[in-house]
Amino acid sequence: MTEAVALGADCLDDLAVARADTVQEKLRGFSTPAPQTAGSFLRRFTLGHIRQPDKALREVHLRAFQLLGVKKGGRVTLDFDSTYIRSYSSRRQGADPTWTKRYTLHPLLCFVAEFGTCLHAALRRGRANTSRGISRFIEECLRRLPKGAAVRARFDSGFYSSDLFGALEHRGVTYLVGVPHNPRLSRVIRQIPDEDYAPCIDKDEGEVAEFGYRMAHDSRFRRYVVKRIAISPGEQATLEEAGYHYWVLVTNCEPPAVSSCELGWVRYWSAEQPTATVEPYSATRSKPFWIA
Predict the structure, then answer these.
(1) Whole-angstrom distance, CA of residue 168 vs CA of residue 155
(2) pLDDT for position 289
(3) In the chain, which residue ranges form alpha helices assigned H by DSSP?
(4) 274 — pLDDT class (breaks 50, 70, 90)
(5) Is residue 213 part of a domain?
(6) Nearest residue to 86 (alpha-carbon basis) of 102, 99, 98, 97
(7) If you write DSSP's letter for every residue of 259-290 in order, what string do you get?
(8) What are the backbone angles phi and psi of residue 136, rounded to the nearest 5°?
(9) What confidence score (pLDDT) does residue 11 get?
(10) Are residues 62 and 7 in the same domain?
């Protein structure tokens, strides 16, 4: 079965192709099992068996970070996202009809930004909410990192939740999370004075400002950063945006670090975009604008 996967097989029925190759059968010294036989064999495995390869993968990742020079005190940036994987059969386990108008699976993904490698992935049903299982997924990802490494995690607005913020703060993880717009937040942004905005120092356009804000059901204020870009000439303006496009993120990055460190801007695209686009930018510190 490992040989079939290496050759591109993605389901048990593809084993029938390998079974038809008599030359390979003679070279390996045994025949490829039938799809039904392979299915019976795989059904013997329990969750404990599955966790054993996961433990081995964790050791592989720790060794890889060691070879790449990531040690205690080093910084690692993790990008979390979810995506849809199309299933061409409605009978596939976990495949559900979604807004894509297809039967899909909805896995969680984590990438190491510095090296562009996939750290972890977790398969979920197609109808799973974007943030479902994210807390446990984060724990599994952190176990694959060297102890003592400074972790910065980036999420799009689908993961926006005070529970997520609390979990990351408890683990000492610096986070940047995209913020979905709502009428209450829009009112706060419109109250920020123009003099509190500062130009983006690594972009040709746009301004940034920061303010304190708390979610309606939360008692804690957190640090929010807003970026605005003036609408293009001839583009239709709206009363809510007052001539600008706005993108907002929430972060627990310490205020003095804003003027000196890069902020990973998590820009939330429309529903047609399968994954979020991460755009880096730097912000200059402006006066905090606090509001209840």
Answers:
(1) 12
(2) 38
(3) 2-6, 15-19, 22-28, 35-42, 47-67, 134-143, 162-170, 183-190
(4) very low
(5) yes
(6) 102
(7) TTS-EEEEE---TT-SS-EEEEE-------EE
(8) -65, -35
(9) 80
(10) no
> How do beta strands 117-122 and 207-213 pair?
unpaired
Q: Note whether residue 234 is domain-resident.
A: yes
Indicate if 221 and 197 belong to the same structural domain.
yes
Kindly state the tokens that stand for 132.
């479902």
| Torsional sign, CA 199, 249, 230, 190 | negative
d(CA 149, CA 66): 11
pLDDT over 70 (residue 203): no
Q: Is the pLDDT of residue 279 over 70?
A: no
- 3-state DSSP call for residue 106? coil
Q: What is the pLDDT of residue 240?
A: 59
Q: CB 175: neighbour CB atoms within 10 A? A: 27
Q: Let me know if residue 167 belongs to a domain.
A: no
Residue 291 CB-density burial (10 A; 0-12 exposed, 13-18 middle, 19+ buried) = middle
Check: CB of residue 167 under 8 Å from CB of residue 131.
Answer: no
Q: Which two tokens stand for residue 21?
A: 């190759």
The arithmetic mean of pLDDT across residues 97-124, rounded, is: 89
- DSSP class of 191: T
Contacts of 169 (CB under 8 A, 6+ apart): 252
